[in-house]
Each structure stands twice: as structure tokens, then as C-alpha cells.
Design goal:
By secondary structure, the chain is of the alpha/beta class. It contains seven helices and 19 strands. The protein has three domains: 90 residues, Ubiquitin-like (UB roll), CATH 3.10.20.30; 93 residues, Translation factors (Elongation Factor Tu (Ef-tu), domain 3); 121 residues, Rossmann fold. The strands form four sheets. The protein has a six-stranded antiparallel sheet, with helices on one face. A six-stranded parallel sheet has the order 17-16-15-14-18-19, with helices on both faces. Strand 10 and strand 11 form a beta hairpin. The chain starts with a strand and ends in a 5-residue tail after the last strand. The mean pLDDT is 93. The structure holds flavin-adenine dinucleotide and FE2/S2 (inorganic) cluster (FES). The site of flavin-adenine dinucleotide (FAD) has 26 residues, from strand 11, strand 12 and helix 3. The site of FE2/S2 (inorganic) cluster has 13 residues, from loops.
Length: 328
């Protein structure tokens, strides 16, 4: 067993056979993560002391990040005692993931390549989750990740926003075969993409591309229920899609004072911005030193946004993300 020390000096014991995330979990400590397979970089941490070895290729790390001392704690086992700059998220009391049956309650085609699928659980098996978390959907031997798109107030059912991938195995099922009352299995809740209690910042900025709006919608709905805590905040939402017909959601009817910027990358209209969301955000001259950013969707957007925003004053640790990397 090795002793692992975190940012707040909390320690836990981790065996040489467990990844740092798994060892922490066994000790009752939650570290930031999402895919748990080395592809999204949510679990990236700086090592201040000690050594570890990768259980698989850390594809989500650049050569420079590796040279600078970063590792992916979901695919690293310790070789010595270690000191790592990881945040301890235990205060959030996340529900333990479980597997439960779910039936399709409704399917709605929102755009040419996005479906909204509502799933319901047996009445005695609700799913407790934090707004922003995701689930794995299991159909036969296929397992794919989807973010929960509704708020955590309603836990007898969830809604998912599903993008069609032309050669995608589960896309084939969702878009050509799925019907009401089909029985699936759900594994979750998963991930640590949820609103943090760092309420001292003036601005909360949400960045989403495509179906990455799902967890943002969930978080906004949960913020709406806590409007007292958030009424003095400036809430910004930048949502990027290709064409105006891809916009299947709007921030109206939430009862929140949101500054909402739909951004199109391939079309110009009078009521939308054009370009990439991270550039549109920078053009608004928001004080990034006083901001927290939650970004979800394409991996490229997340990497570019993090680099550009931290170069422009956003504190490094105020950027939270969930990258929709391919699940297989
Ligand atoms: C934590 C997490 C949350 C997610 N939440 C959502 C969500 O809410 N809604 C949603 O639509 N998707 C979401 N995704 C992405 C989704 O899980 C994958 O896109 C999934 O692989 C699609 O399954 P499929 O069987 O249709 O395609 P697959 O059979 O897995 O893939 C077929 C081919 O399609 C392409 N492809 C598949 N997924 C992607 C991708 N994400 N980016 C680029 N190319 C891809 C690849 O070329 C791949 O070889 C999430 C992913 C993660 C990790
Ligand atoms: S790379 Fe570790 S959680 Fe995704």
C-alpha cells in the first residue's frame, strides 16, 4: 500500500493494483473524473512527488503535458508514495453508481440528427444524481455514455439528448429501431461534472457544443431551484452548433436571468453569433478572473477553450469539463 496525499493534505492508502481514482474511491474519496478510460482528461493532475505507471496509453495527454508532470489518475497505479494536486470532492456526497432497468417512455426527433429520449425507472428504484452527471446505457453487449438532460428534482426518470453518428452502433438502434416501452439497462450516475460550491465568483459561464447542452440544461434547471444562491451571479450560456436548425433548446422559461448566446459555425443569421463559442465568449470582455466555466461537448472545443480562457485570466482550477469522447 502507498500513501497518496491530495491538495488539501488529505491522504489515502492505494494499492499497487488500483488506479489512483479507484484507490481513492475505496477510501471513500471522490476525485474528478469522467470517462475512466484515459480519453477525456477530466482526471488530469499534476504530480508533485512520487511515481506511478500507466495501465494504458494516456491518449488524452499531449507530449508537453506529460513532460510538465501531468498524469491521468484514472489510468495510473502508484509505484511509490505520491503527492498529487487533485481536488477531494467527497463533500458532495455523490450517489454510488448502480445498474437498474429503464423503459423508454418517449422518443422525440428534435432535429435531423438529435433525438430526445425519456427513460423511466421502476417506482421503487429511483436514480439519485447531481445535475450534470451522466449514465451509461446498456443494450445487449453495447454500452454508451449519455449525459442526463433534466434536473435532479425528478429522479424517477431521465431525459437524454442523443446525437446520431452515421456508423454508430447505438445510433443505429436509437434512430432506426428504438420504440416506446423498450427495456434497457442504465448504469450510473457517473462523473463529477456538476456545479461546485465555489459561490464567491461573480460569473458562471456555460460552454456547450451540440448535445453537450444536455448537462448544461440539467445544471441550469437545478440552479433555477436555488435562485436565491444564484440571483447575484451573471450567468452566461454559449451554445455552439453548425446551423440554425440545429438549435433544439433555448434558455427561456427557466426563470433565470441568463445571457444566452447561440453560436453557429456554418451560417449567419441576425439573432445568432458566428464562429466558435470560445472566441465569441472572449469577444464579450467578461472578467474571467471572476468566473467559473463549465464546458461540455467536443473534446477539441474543451481543449481550445481551456487554453484560450486560462491565457486570458481564468484561474486554471475554475474550468470544469465533460468531453463527449467516443464511448467504445
Ligand atoms: C461522459 C460522456 C457523456 C456523453 N454524453 C453524450 C450525450 O449526452 N449525448 C450524445 O449524443 N453523446 C454523448 N456522449 C458521446 C457518446 O457516448 C458517443 O458519441 C457514443 O460513442 C456514440 O455511440 P454510437 O454507438 O452511436 O457510436 P459508436 O459505435 O461508439 O461510434 C461509431 C463511430 O462514430 C464516431 N463517433 C462516435 N462518437 C463520437 C464522438 N463523441 N465524437 C466523435 N466521433 C464519434 C467514431 O468515428 C466512431 O468510430 C458522451 C460521451 C461521454 C464520454
Ligand atoms: S481520462 Fe481519466 S476520466 Fe477521462
Amino acid at each position: 500500500m502507498f500513501t497518496i496525499t491530495l491538495k488539501n493534505n488529505k491522504t489515502f492508502q492505494c494499492s499497487a493494483n488500483d488506479t489512483l481514482i479507484e484507490g481513492a474511491r475505496k477510501a471513500g474519496i471522490t476525485l474528478e473524473h469522467s470517462c475512466l478510460s484515459g480519453r477525456c482528461s477530466s482526471c488530469k493532475v499534476m504530480v508533485d512527488d512520487g511515481s506511478s505507471e500507466p495501465t494504458m496509453d494516456e491518449v488524452a495527454l499531449s507530449q508537453k503535458e506529460k513532460e510538465d508532470g501531468f498524469i491521468l489518475s484514472c489510468v495510473r497505479t502508484p509505484k511509490t508514495d505520491m503527492v498529487i494536486r487533485a481536488e477531494d470532492l467527497s463533500e458532495y456526497k455523490l450517489a454510488v453508481p448502480k445498474t437498474l432497468p429503464a423503459k423508454i417512455k418517449n422518443i422525440e426527433k428534435l432535429t435531423e440528427d438529435v433525438l430526445k429520449v425519456e427513460l423511466r425507472f421502476p417506482p421503487n428504484q429511483p436514480l439519485n444524481f447531481m445535475a450534470g452527471q451522466y449514465v451509461n446505457v446498456i443494450k445487449g453487449n453495447i454500452k454508451r455514455s449519455y449525459s442526463i438532460g433534466n434536473s435532479s428534482k425528478e429522479n424517477t426518470g431521465i431525459e437524454l439528448f442523443i446525437k446520431k453518428y452515421p456508423d454508430g452502433l447505438l445510433s443505429q438502434y436509437w434512430f432506426n429501431e428504438a420504440k416506446i416501452n423498450d427495456l434497457l439497462r442504465i448504469e450510473g450516475p457517473r462523473g463529477t461534472f456538476f456545479i461546485r460550491n465555489n459561490a464567491s465568483y461573480k460569473n458562471i459561464i456555460f460552454l456547450a457544443t451540440g448535445t453537450g447542452i444536455a448537462p448544461v440544461k440539467s445544471m441550469l434547471e437545478s440552479i433555477a431551484g436555488l435562485s436565491e444562491d444564484f440571483k447575484n451571479k451573471n450567468i452566461y450560456v454559449f451554445w455552439g452548433v453548425k446551423f440554425v436548425n440545429d438549435l433544439f433548446w433555448s434558455s427561456e422559461n427557466l426563470g433565470l436571468n441568463i445571457k444566452y448566446f447561440p453560436v453557429l459555425s456554418r451560417e449567419k443569421t441576425p439573432s445568432t453569433e458566428v464562429g466558435h463559442i470560445q472566441d465569441v465568449l472572449l469577444s464579450k470582455n467578461i472578467d474571467l478572473k471572476e468566473s467559473v466555466v463549465y464546458a461540455c461537448g467536443s473534446n477539441d472545443m474543451i481543449h481550445e477553450a481551456k487554453n484560450k480562457l486560462t491565457e486570458n485570466g481564468l484561474p486554471d482550477f475554475n474550468f470544469y469539463s465533460d468531453a463527449f469522447v467516443t464511448s467504445n
